[in-house]
Amino acid sequence: MGFSIAQYEAAINKIDVGLDKLSEKLEELPPAIKKAQSHWYLPGWLKSFLAWQGRELLKLGKWLLNKSIELLKGAVAPILFFKYSYDWEGIHGKATDVQGSVKPSVLAIPRTWEGAADADYVKAIVPQPDAAGRVAALSDKVSTSLALCASAGLAFYIALGVIIYQFIGTMAAAIAALCSGIFSWAGFAAGAADSGVTAGMIWAAISALGVVMGAQAQQMASIKGDASDNNAFPGGHWPKATA
């Protein structure tokens, strides 16, 4: 999945709206349970079951709400990843230009200059394109890694939005079952049980994001090692050029 700022903003906005709706449903649930328990014909064990099932559903809903709010704290990261990916791609282009402009064939001088100065000049220009080429390759890798992180963030927040709205549907169905003219405790129980997959789904989404980010962290460690290449950057510096 590629990264689109418009699509990402829409995904985050959908989550914000969904969390407001989820908060409303969480407030509606306790009165709905209390109303259902007020039916005179319900046996005590069923009233106790409704109370327990309601508490479990409420607990899961609050967990989802708080976890989603916590996860939204990192919502700015994918946008920054995308921005920095673009910046590093620009560095790649500039480094490529430098690589082409400092090739020995470009910087060669007429063979009328001989001696120690000529030897030093030739020696100094040879490693320049290699160093510029390494910068170009490294910046391209960094740009690609950042772009993948941005895309992973987009996919994660889209998945989070889907989970939130699925749970809202579960809550709405459960409340409707409690408040219907013909009370259906079985319908409420079925709707509440359906929410049991939500916690697993959100952890699965987090795990999937962690796999991508972990892979990119390893890639960045590899890039750091490449940047320390003593052949392209002797002593950790740009190859010495002529004065």
Quick rundown:
The chain has helices at 5-37, 44-71, 76-101, 104-107, 116-125, 128-179, 185-194, 196-227.
Notes on the structure:
By secondary structure, the chain is mainly α. It has helices at residues 5-37, 44-71, 76-101, 104-107, 116-125, 128-179, 185-194, 196-227. The chain starts with a helix and ends in a 16-residue tail after the last helix. The mean pLDDT is 80.
How is the topology of this model organized?
Layout: H1 5-37, H2 44-71, H3 76-101, H4 104-107, H5 116-125, H6 128-179, H7 185-194, H8 196-227
Strand segment count: 0
| C-alpha-based Rg, rounded | 30 Å
* Uncertain ranges: none
Shape: rod-shaped
What is the string of helix and strand elements? HHHHHHHH
Key descriptive features of the protein:
243 residues, mainly alpha, 80% helix, 8 helices
